[in-house]
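Reply to thread "Modeling small-molecule complexes from scratch"

Following up on the discussion above, here's a worked example others can learn from. I took a protein sequence and the SMILES for pyridoxal-5'-phosphate and predicted the complex. Inputs first:
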Amino acid sequence: MNTVIEGHPRHLMNITPRPEAVMVRGRGSWLWDSAGRRYLDFVQGWAVNCLGHSHPAVAEALARQAGELLTPSPAYHNDQALRLATRLSALSGLAQVFFANSGAEANEGAIKLARKWGRLHRGGAWKIITFQKGYYGRTLATMSATGKPGWSSMFAPQVPGFAKARLNDLGSVEALIDSGTVAVMLELVQGEAGVHGATPEFAQGLRKLCDEHGLLLIVDEVQTGIGRLGTLFGCQRFGITPDLMTLGKGLGGGVPLTALLASASASCFEYGEQGGTFCGNPLTAAAGNAVLDVVTEAPFLAEARTRGEQLQAGLQALQHRHGLAEVRAFGLLQALELGPGRHAPQLAAQAFERGLLLNAPNPGCLRLMPALNVSAEEIEQMLSMLDALLAAQTLERESACALSA
Ligand SMILES: *Cc1c(COP(=O)(O)O)cnc(C)c1O
């Protein structure tokens, strides 16, 4: 079925190269473009659609809520936000929630809250230790917190106060702590960096270090939260409780809904210090409630863990067959490190041509983040498509070698 497209990409700002295809419809693990071509989606909007595209529970909650109430103003309570905040608090053990619209905005809120807390409880300390290769978003402060190469000069001057430690190197964190430090902020699995995980020992050591020095531990669960790592929150997998936690991506099941959660002692905003026009609107909160209904009902997460094991085993089989470097797997957030002579963005582009959506966060690896309810058959289908692509690349390389020999 073809869809007629009105409009032209020249009216969109140039923020990223995109293929010509125009996406018009999604269901579960599948996406369709305007020419009727079908794609098996192992990107899912960068781990956003935790229940797949247009899950009926999310679509129905949105339709129902759209007919009831969209935005009464953040100056009034609404039923959906109250219910979602209460549930998130009970599930996380963190006392209070602030809703936002992007992961960056939630992290920005965490940074502000930490600075406020430092003013109240740590003699004005305001600096936050973050991590090399870490990713926290695209506002000025979160870009400054981010440890991506080249980002420190992109929109100079930076927001000051984000010294970068190394993941899994407690000494590198300790060395950066001084009297001006108020918090440590990290992703327990660095997603944008290519799925590099903290060890449980490091995570627990960091919790202890923060307690010893009176620092807040901020865990950015924008990518790892809501079942992505096989537990509702990633920190549960690592056996720690942070003081602040941010959620995003999967929380809204496809709509812009994010959250900042804080323990009772860390939650210190006063009137006028934090807010936002669309923050906590009932439309997106209704989607969040629908997502939690599905994800927290057994055996949903157990099945997601089983699918994660299946995907990991399948990727490891490809690794051995094609002589690839490494598989890194945390629930349904996984990466295939290709090793020398292969180029991940090229592979992802070839996959796209064959109707498979894969993400290459850097030239060396593919990142896989399917829907948490992806089926066993869809995983097998993806693996066989990827197998064929890798084999074709091998052939290409061999014939290139033969030609140059
Ligand atoms: C995606 C992401 C963000 C930014 O979220 P946006 O919604 O794009 O602002 C922040 N932190 C992590 C770990 C992320 O994966």
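What I'd highlight from this example: The radius of gyration is 22 Å. The longest strand covers residues 181-186. Questions welcome below.
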